[in-house]
Amino acid sequence: MSKLYVGSEVGQLRRVLLNRPERALTHLTPSNCHELLFDDVLAVEAAGEEHDAFASTLRSQDVEVLLLHDLLVETLAVDDARAWLLDTQISDFRYGPIFASELRQYLAQMDNEHLATVLLGGLAYSELPIKTPSILQKMSRPLDFVIEPLPNHLFTRDTSCWVYGGVSLNPMMKPARQRETNHLRAIYRWHPTFAGQDFIKYFGDEDLHYDNANIEGGDVLVIGKGAVLIGISERTTPQGVENLAASLFKSGKPAKSLLSTYLSIAHACT
């Protein structure tokens, strides 16, 4: 297993995490696509074919391609990971204790492949065979989502970004993306590719609410020689930048030039 390390945005790519467009995109409709952060619905079959061509091109260049769905299936094979994901993604606070308990029991009976597909791709009430005394279920319409699809999981760099010898598991700004991070938390904790490996989790791996400390990985650039450039944007807040920067400094992995880079950003934003 090669070392988990990203030292440049322009160096040789050796391994990449992709998510093939599947069930989540089939749940995009003209009425919900904006809520799910898409401008329009996509041609799902064509998107899959284009994704396969892209992955094939990467492999032809000796890049190891990891697929998120496959990693999640393999992670769910670990009992602790499966239990944690069901408790986290199907929490009492999200669904109410009555519905959450029975929904977890229903999902727990699925095999790992089916469960991963539902967690990534979503589930409508019309697809749910169980009936509960839950107020939430009684008030929901058939085409409402029990589990919202995660079509933005396509953008794997946003949810977790690697910086030199570690990774930031980013607390996402938009509600449509916030569940994504839990999948990566589980993968990096329990999947055999990552469990036991020597890497740092700089930020976002704790089971807590990060409030306004939001980051998307597209705003984090590894520019080499120990320096990191972090942009403040609609989805990356100053609080997120400060928390990630503090963890980077504490780790001692990036060089001291990171400090001047961060201070330059802060000065430019004042």
What does it look like?
- This protein is of the alpha/beta class.
- It is built from twelve helices and nine strands.
- The chain has two domains: 15-152, Pentein, CATH 1.10.3930; 155-268, L-arginine/glycine Amidinotransferase, Chain A, CATH 3.75.10.
- The chain has a three-stranded mixed β-sheet with strand order 5-6-7.
- α3 (68-76) crosses α7.
- The chain starts with 14 loop residues before the first strand and ends with a helix.
- Keywords: Hydrolase.
- Its EC number is 3.5.3.6.
- InterPro entries: Arg_deiminase.
Concise account of the structure shown:
The chain is α/β, with parallel strands linked by helices. It is about 40% helix and about 15% strand.
In percent, how helical is the residue content?
Answer: 40-55%
- CATH H level, superfamily name of the largest domain: Arginine deiminase
Number of strands: 9
Q: Whole-Å distance between the termini? A: 44 Å
String of helices and strands: EHHEHHHHHEHEHEEHEEEHH
| CATH domain class of the largest domain | Mainly Alpha
Strand content: 5-15%
CATH architecture of the largest domain: Orthogonal Bundle
